[in-house]
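For practice. Any example?
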Amino acid sequence: MIDSSATILSLSDVAAGKLREITAGEANPNVGLRVYVYSGGCSGFRYGMMIEDAPTAEDQVLESQGIKVYVDTKSLDLLTGSQIDYVDTLMGAGFTVNNPNAVAACGCGSSFRTAESEGAPGACHH
């Protein structure tokens, strides 16, 4: 496991607390947060996150605030320097990605574009 997640990907205090709450009943020591990027959305790329039981062979295994974070090698470059946060607003609650690589994003908050990769823009779905 690499603990260089501060430079690759980090969790805010609030996000780490929420993830501890979500995984509190898990007996599996490998449970972690999978963060990935895929093509789509109104700006070209979309973020995805899920609780995962274990990493795959293609994953970079990071750790932030005691939480395992799994990122596939294809998503790694697009997420470098990002911070996962948890926000609770009138519009709803959920995890968000603060990504310094994004040069454009749309109102849904889960779609972005980088300067180097424009992706394939599409509809903004929640």
